[in-house]
Design the sequence.
């Protein structure tokens, strides 16, 4: 990937790295499906207003509507709901570990369903190294929670799989000429229409106590940062770098979350966390491919033979 793509992924990791914390705080005042419905409704409303003010409403075609509807289901309605429900039984740290399985699912889905995003040995090594780094980063105490409360853990894995399928399918957005804002507004709107009836039927929010200001602030942060800005960047990187590379952001999100906590909350970083970050960055470097290419060229030059892969 180009350096600019890595910068976009790093920014997206910061935006999405805080989403698990926002969800955990918001669940103190909202039930899961209500939280998801409000998040999607606010995100859709903000983007629709912006599209209207800028005169950028896209022309609707049958194919565009179908693609956006599928993305609304796979990229928002299903994973948002599974994550919000899963975090009622899991902490943000363990939830982020399960979310980091998204690239592993993505390489399998992309290998089966795409022609230009196939599994390679270096990519598989990179993803496994990055996943190991995430596990080390979050600490052994998180792993002790594995196996207790299996349903929330399965929900998180289901969300990761849904994100993976959406990532491969979402490349159709660029091919149809939809810009990220229009695609995001469409999928948020359709996902909201899917989830709102579920929230009314299951959560019955009118029967619950009014959420406090902290819960509302967390929902607003989810809608504006994690949803609107996050998906604008997501579609930009997806069109340029492919599904597997885009999903590498889930390895960086826990790193961003810890760095944010150190910077703004005064938390201390441990040697274990530094080791986990090192593994993640090694995995990302292998995935990028250039370091291996440079190393292969240097070894070939030392031996006086042709470069690797030539």
Sequence:
């Amino acid at each position: 990937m180009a350096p600019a793509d890595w910068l976009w992924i790093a920014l997206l990791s910061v935006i999405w790295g805080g989403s698990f914390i926002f969800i955990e705080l918001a669940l103190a005042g909202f039930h899961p499906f209500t939280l998801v419905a409000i998040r999607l409704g606010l995100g859709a409303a903000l983007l629709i207003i912006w599209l209207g003010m800028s005169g950028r409403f896209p022309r609707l075609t049958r194919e565009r509507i179908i693609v956006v509807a599928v993305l609304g289901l796979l990229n928002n309605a299903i994973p948002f709901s599974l994550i919000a429900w899963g975090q009622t039984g899991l902490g943000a740290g363990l939830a982020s570990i399960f979310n980091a399985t998204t690239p592993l699912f993505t390489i399998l889905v992309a290998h089966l369903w795409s022609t230009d995003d196939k599994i390679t040995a270096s990519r598989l090594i990179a993803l496994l190294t990055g996943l190991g780094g995430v596990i080390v980063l979050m600490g052994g105490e998180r792993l002790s929670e594995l196996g207790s409360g299996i349903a929330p853990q399965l929900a998180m894995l289901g969300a990761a799989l849904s994100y993976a399928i959406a990532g491969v399918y979402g490349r159709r957005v660029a091919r149809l000429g939809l810009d990220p804002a229009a695609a995001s507004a469409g999928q948020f709107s359709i996902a909201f229409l899917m989830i709102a009836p579920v929230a009314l039927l299951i959560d019955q929010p009118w029967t619950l106590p009014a959420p406090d200001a902290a819960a509302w602030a967390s929902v607003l942060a989810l809608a504006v940062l994690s949803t609107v800005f996050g998906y604008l960047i997501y579609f930009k990187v997806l069109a340029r770098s492919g599904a597997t590379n885009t999903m590498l952001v889930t390895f960086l999100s826990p790193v961003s979350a810890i760095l944010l906590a150190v910077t703004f909350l005064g938390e201390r970083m441990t040697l274990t966390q530094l080791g986990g970050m090192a593994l993640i960055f090694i995995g990302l470097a292998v995935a990028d491919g250039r370091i291996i290419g440079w190393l292969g060229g240097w070894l070939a030059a030392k031996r006086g033979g042709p470069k690797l892969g030539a």
Summary: Residues 3-303 form one domain. The chain is about 80% helix and 0% strand. The chain has one domain: 3-303.
